[in-house]
Amino acid sequence: MKPQEMRDQSIEELVAKLEESKRELFELKNEMKRSKKLEKPHLLREKKKDIAKFNTIIREKQLANR
């Protein structure tokens, strides 16, 4: 998801997607620990970047609402 698309969403929607991304990252890490190899290892980095984007945009919106 692109940052501009994220900025168009409400804080509640962003928090929900943030939690979903965290859950997916957790599942990927567990899969890696179980099988020692991921089918798509690039997804780990992608999820971490998504989480950082969500956190950044949520913080921007919180500061804008002050």
Automatic annotation (TrEMBL):
Superkingdom: Bacteria
UniProt entry keywords in alphabetical sequence: Coiled coil, Ribonucleoprotein, Ribosomal protein
CC terms in the record's Gene Ontology section: ribonucleoprotein complex; ribosome
UniProt GO molecular function: structural constituent of ribosome
GO biological process: translation
Family the UniProt entry places it in: Belongs to the universal ribosomal protein uL29 family.
Name of this protein: Large ribosomal subunit protein uL29
